Amino acid sequence: MSRRIITEQLQANIPGTKIDTYFDKIIKYIPADIVGAWVTVTGLIDIDKGVNAPNQILLWIVFVVGTVLTAIWTLKQTSVKKKPPAITQTVISTGAFIVWVFALGGPFATLEFYRPLYGSLLLILYTLIVALINPPEG
Fold first, then answer.
1. How many C-beta atoms lie closer than 10 Å to residue 134's C-beta?
2. What's the CA gap between 89 and 94, in Å, rounded?
3. Contact 49, 55 (CB under 8 A)
4. CA nearest neighbour of 134 among 39, 42, 9
5. Count H helices, E strands: the chain?
6. Which residue, 58, 64, 97, 109, could crosslink 70 as a Cys pair with Cβ 3.0–4.6 Å?
């Protein structure tokens, strides 16, 4: 299954492909592989508990790297010959990574305004709303 969102019937005429439904788009918009890597890395950082490294600085660095990696990874996984880059899908997937990190706390947990409830509500809204977006790059 291609990671690129299919929104037009002409694309769906290729054997083994179909137009993506709302639920297909949710799955393709959320960079589960990068979020999984984030959870693993933050677990490793948490084990250290600041003994050998400044945890908050390290979390911010890993967050920035994860954000950039999400954009690059999504562009690579959605590239199709003779099609424009999937910019909309890349922006939404990168936003999804940021929202997931915010919902999980990560480096945001130390900020004055942060409350876990805000992250949870944002994650629910973002996930429900972005699946309504059909990327124009098709």
1. 15
2. 8
3. yes
4. 9
5. 6, 0
6. 97
**What string of pLDDT tens digits covers the 138 residues of the chain?**
578 888 876 655 566 668 889 999 999 999 999 999 999 999 988 887 656 667 888 999 999 999 999 999 999 999 988 889 999 999 999 999 999 999 999 999 989 999 999 999 999 999 999 999 999 876
Cβ neighbours around 80 below 10 Å, total: 15
pTM, entire model = 0.89
| Residue 81, token pair as written in the block | 């010959």
Residue 135, classed as helix, strand or coil, is: coil
Residue 10 tokens read as 């002409």
Q: Which residue has the tokens 């994650």?
A: 123
Gyration radius from the chain CA atoms: 17
Give how far Cα 10 sits from Cα of 1, 16, 68, 104, Å: 17, 13, 32, 39
